[in-house]
Design a protein that fits this description.
about 35% helix; alpha/beta; binds 4-nitrophenyl phosphate; Rossmann fold
C-alpha cells in the first residue's frame, strides 16, 4: 500500500438493507465532514442473499435523511474475496462475525474483522440490534449506536486522537 492508497472499509450485516447501509452512509458522511473522504473506500454487504439487488430499507433511508445522511447502493452478498480485498471488515453483530469467519475472515495480517460496537464506549463488544422486524423507533436507536461507533472507528482508523 502506498500512502495515497485509500483505506478500504466494508460494513457487514445479515441482509445489507438495514444496518450496514446505514453504517456505510454514516461513516462516509463523517469522513466527508472531517475532509477525509479521499482517504477511504467504503462499501457494505450482507452475509445472506435474501435481499440482493434491493435498495436500503425505507426505514433506514428515512432515519438517515432525518440526520442529513444519504444512503446509496444496492444490497449484495459478501464474498470470500471481500475478506482479502478490504482492510477493515466491520460486522454489525456476533452472528455476522461468525459467518465471516466461516468465509475465512480472521484478524491476521492487515485484514481485520471487527465488531462495530468494539468502538462503542457505551457498550463495547455488543451487537447492533437487528431492527428489521421491529418499529421505526428501533431504527433511530440503531442510528444512534451506529453514529457513536462510527465516530470512534473513524478516529481509530484515521489515527486521530
Ligand atoms: P439487516 O436487517 O441485516 O440489518 O439488513 C435484516 C434485513 C432482512 C432480514 C433480516 C435482517 N431478513 O430476515 O429478511
Amino acid at each position: 500500500m502506498t500512502p495515497s492508497d485509500p483505506i478500504s472499509v466494508l460494513f457487514v450485516c445479515l441482509g445489507n438493507i438495514c444496518r450496514s447501509p446505514l453504517a456505510e452512509g454514516v461513516f462516509r458522511a463523517l469522513a466527508a465532514e472531517a475532509e477525509l473522504e479521499d482517504r477511504f473506500r467504503v462499501d457494505s454487504a450482507g452475509t445472506g442473499a435474501y435481499h440482493v439487488g434491493e435498495a436500503p430499507d425505507p426505514r433506514s433511508v428515512a432515519v438517515a435523511l432525518e440526520h442529513g445522511v444519504q444512503l446509496t447502493g444496492l444490497a449484495r452478498q459478501v464474498t470470500p474475496h471481500d475478506l482479502t480485498n478490504f482492510d477493515w471488515v466491520v460486522a454489525m453483530d456476533d452472528s455476522n462475525r461468525r459467518s465471516l469467519r466461516g468465509l475465512g475472515g480472521g484478524t491476521d495480517g492487515k485484514r481485520r474483522v471487527v465488531l462495530l460496537r468494539d468502538f462503542d464506549s457505551e457498550s463495547p463488544g455488543s451487537d447492533v440490534p437487528d431492527p428489521y422486524y421491529g418499529g421505526v423507533e428501533g431504527f433511530e436507536r440503531v442510528f444512534q449506536i451506529v453514529d457513536r461507533s462510527c465516530r470512534q472507528l473513524l478516529d481509530e482508523i484515521a489515527g486521530r486522537p
